[in-house]
Write a structure and sequence with these properties.
By secondary structure, this protein is of the alpha/beta class. It folds into four domains: 5-104 and 176-380 and 417-467, TIM Barrel, CATH 3.20.20.80; 109-161, Alpha-Beta Complex (Oligo-1,6-glucosidase, domain 2), CATH 3.90.400; 381-415, no CATH class; 482-563, Immunoglobulin-like. It is 28% helix and 16% strand. The protein has 18 helices and 20 strands. The strands form five sheets. It has an eight-stranded parallel β-barrel. Helix 12 runs parallel beside helix 16 (462-475) and helix 13 (388-400) runs antiparallel to helix 14. The longest helix has 15 residues, at 176-190. The two termini are 35 Å apart. Bound molecules: alpha-D-glucopyranose.
Length: 569
Amino acid sequence: MHTTYWKENVIYQVYLRSFKDSDGDGIGDLNGLLSKIEYLSELGIDTVWLSPVYLSPNVDNGYDIKDYRAIQPEYGTIAEWKQLLDELHKRSIRLIMDLVLNHTSDVHPWFIDAKSSRDSRYRDFYIWRPASEDGGPPNNWTSYLGKSAWTFDESTGEYYLHLYNAKQPDLNWDNPELRAEMYKIMKFWLDKGIDGFRIDAVNSISKDQRFPDTEESKLQASGEPYTKNGPRIHEFLREMNDEVFSKYPIFTAGETSKVTEDDVLMYTKPERRELSMVLSAEASKLADLDEDQWQSKEWTLDDLRKVMLKWQKDVGEPGGWFGLYLSNHDQPRMVATFGDQGQYRNESAKMLAIMLHTLKGTPFILQGEELGMTNHPGLQRIEDFNEQQAHAYYDVMVRERGEPEDLIMERIRRKSRDHARTPMQWDDSPNAGFSDGTPWLPVHPDYPEVNVKAQRDDSGSVFNFYRTLIRLRKEHPVMVYGKFDVLLEDHEQIFAYRRYDEAEEWLILLNFSGEHAHWELPEKDAARLEGASFLLGSDPDGTKPPCHRTGTLKPYEGLVYQRLELPGA
Ligand code: GLC
């Protein structure tokens, strides 16, 4: 299959644990999702990306897998999963599963066997190294949790590598037997009829086999120069594609970080037969300090524009592809970081949505984003947080280094991944209609106003705005395949660009500030765009006069103008 339907798709991430609980245990489940399929149809999305639902001790909420072929009992059964797949397909919604290739859980049978003896048949499925000369870890790499990336196994006297938690040992992709096992797992799900995979941390699976010390002094993941885009990564992906992906009518979206334009092209140009598209964390992490991801960095519109332009210009044209997102389960809510979660919540949620649906790339929506959900103000003390990285940071900074608790908690409150994981807000009944029991993470207190039921009936809501954008993508190929040009490149408040094809031209103006912002189009564009009609905007007031060469945007306003009669037509 060489179609590019996945470029046209809008993908919706279901973080199942927080989507809809059907049995009152406070945890979202497959039957809950099943009961909300009509909602997905109504929203209009094309594909569901289901975060991991496999058997897992939940150290990292499912990203630590014990059995790749089994469903986590608190989520349901394989029969329920199959029913979900069938019901989605009946409505022409595709399903992609989350594929965690870089590591397993430490209670996966492979790892249990691997650490039982140096002679275990599974020993080489993982990455073992002797202690360094001083008896410490083999090198100085840190994990994403800010601790050593190596843990000593007493019984066999060697260290094993884990880029994440010690309970998430890294797999050794250099071992062909491991690769063959992973291909069988992929086929297990593909043979059930799924439509592809979102592949977790995919550009980490090939490591520099010299395992050299790093010179990076950053707190988390200091070994990245040797663990990202490693020496055999393209070989592994080509093999995976030849052995598995190419045999099915599917697409793949690989989660990456630390990728350049060239890397993205290498991963996604169709003739290279690797991945369909990549997701790059670069934009969503603009507000994170590289040396310590829990600290905030001031970002400017110029920074964001540069990241976005990088993918628009250099990747789209030569045939690579990528997913567009600012929100997923690993980031605080995008409105809080890139918009305004107070006074201009609705405006900024819509303005960001315009950007994510009108730039080149496949939009990925995190559940609740379509309501403009924001960070949870009630997550205050370390006990209030669930995700492991927040706890690890607290341990390292407060317990080990004696940093002031207030300072560290302030960072955690702002940046925790839990903000993205609070329960979906369905209505104004107790627990926002998410569960009859006690939700595993607290429901955001704004749910009486911010919920699906209220927004459905409000034509000016964020929800209805997303519906419109998703529908427009199906009606206007220019949003997917149109060419791209940036305008007003030095503007400090407004991100402006145009998309165009033979049929139409769109002018998109996005105010990233809480102040009014004035624009003046350059002469050559003004001549063409003057008189273009108003297509859509974040202002619920309704329609606007046609485009003029100058104008003013309200705080966080986003506007789209459309010109149909193109010069020469
Ligand atoms: C990815 C996931 C994240 C997880 C990590 C380890 O980045 O998105 O949630 O913690 O991989 O699997």
